[in-house]
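User: Fold both of these, please.

Assistant: Here is the first one.
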Amino acid sequence: MTGWRQSRKLDHIKYSLSLADGPGASGFADISLVHNCLPNLGWDELDISSSIAGISINNPLIINAITGGAHDVTTLNGQIAEFACHTHTAMAVGSQYAALECPEVLQSYKIVRKKNPDGIIFANLGAYATPKQAQLAVEMIDAQAIQIHLNVAQELIMTEGDRNFSGYLANIASIVDHVHVPVIVKEVGCGIAKEQAKLLAEIGIKAIDVGGMGGTNFLAIEAARSQLDLYPETLCWGIPTAISAVEIMSVLPKHMDMIVSGGIRTSLDVVKSLALGGIATGMATPIIRMLHERDIEYAMSWFDNFLREIKCYMLLSGAANINNLAKVPMVITGYSKEWLMARGIDTTQYGTRK
């Protein structure tokens, strides 16, 4: 295995923990849920379980992909898997291409299934992977689904990154036809517009992960790795997460699911994401930071409170479950409203929902 790939994985962890989110905003500040003073609900009626592509999950959080493929991250991946196991939370590994190139780092991925034998785990590869490689990635960790990630902007900033992105859609379609688990397509921090969401929906994938702007910024990470001084507008390239979610929902067929990730930092962010139509939300850096800087017991205690807060917001919105959240009224203002109106999407429909 080439050393640069291993060092890149270590750099991703280093800079994801040290760099701030953004500088682009996720757009959740433009989203306001309408308070329900007569929710007609009791605490025991609240249900935060959900499902992704037919896979049942106990809570609407996914610990999204961030690492793997280097000996030094094996311990961290094991900690993430333990956390996922104890909290009954779905998780994804980072890109497994490294292990396909060099079997000596297989353990950095396999440890996830070892530590979380009965959990929901997603495999992960780039859109350039072959269908055979995708199936090998699934078998490597006995995954229930596979994420195919899109990270064109990140690759362009990377000194050693790809420069040819031709044929991605056709290749993803081939992966869908070949693998024996649901395929989820996710962006890595720049969001997905409605035009590309529609194309993806036509090739048989089961879910789209927004992966919008506003959270961990892989453009900034790659710039830091290569000691590049990028303009602020370059670091703000992409579609804010909340805006991307609305764009996707405007064209998403009913049989497909949407996962919202990119700057999910609070329990209210989660609830807003679900109210926008997400069936689940993805988060990585906050959990990894707690595991790295504190310990698993602290992280589990934080997570219990995080889920309790989600239930509080559901009750205040009058929503007994995740599906009901997608029906509660919300108001979209500011830059998000201006963007969506310019894109031909009527935001008033969200404010008049019942």
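And the second sequence with its predicted structure:
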Amino acid sequence: MATTRRITTVTLDWGDTLAANHGMPYLVTQRRAFERLGQDLAALGCTVVPTDFAEKAMTDLSGDWRRSIDPVLNPEHKEFDFAAMLGGWIAAVGGMDCDQHQVRQVLSRCTARLADTVIPYGDSAPALSMLKARGYRIGILSHTPWPGDACREWFHRHGMAAYIDFYSLSCEVGWIKPHPRHFQHALDQAGETPDRVLHVGDHPVRDIEGARAQGMRTCLRVTENIYSQDALARCRPDAEILHLRELLDVLDRLG
């Protein structure tokens, strides 16, 4: 009889798992971030900042984002290069002739605002604390185009960084879930075999089917009005939760 191996590591998706994403005012947040970026660049002496800088940035970002999440347009699940996009914007307005330390500062302020398009759930930090107290290693396994430093800073700002052992972010991996390379990157950092890792996420394909295909255990963070009921029914997770505090019971049950 096969023996169920003990789970030692929990990886978690970010948006709509640890933080609210769907339905949040992220377009307004992005526009404000880019408006402030344009103002900051003009204040640094960039001489060719157009009046519609924010709108052009929104159009560029929306186009690359939509292409990246479309399985027809992006069948290889490659992440788009947002850092290169930022660099192109800076070069186009004459930012290469400005003080580069100051340019990096205004870019950091912009990407921090962009990361705050997701709002942490109230039970996220307590749940991570309980997992850490029970001895589990914790990783963030997330599809996000924002620069890795901005993502990590978000977890610092919201009191969760102390519980995180490693991050596997698509912006740094270059591939997005459900591509095997994204999951393998997380497994390499976990230093565990897939059957000892529980992945928790809300997306039926990217999170649940993608993790199961790599041999990981799976837990669906149940949401409503985001994905079709057919997709949720097909994904067949090992467990489902409504609240993150339920994870300890799931881990006890799954071994």
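Residues 26-43 form the longest helix (18 residues).
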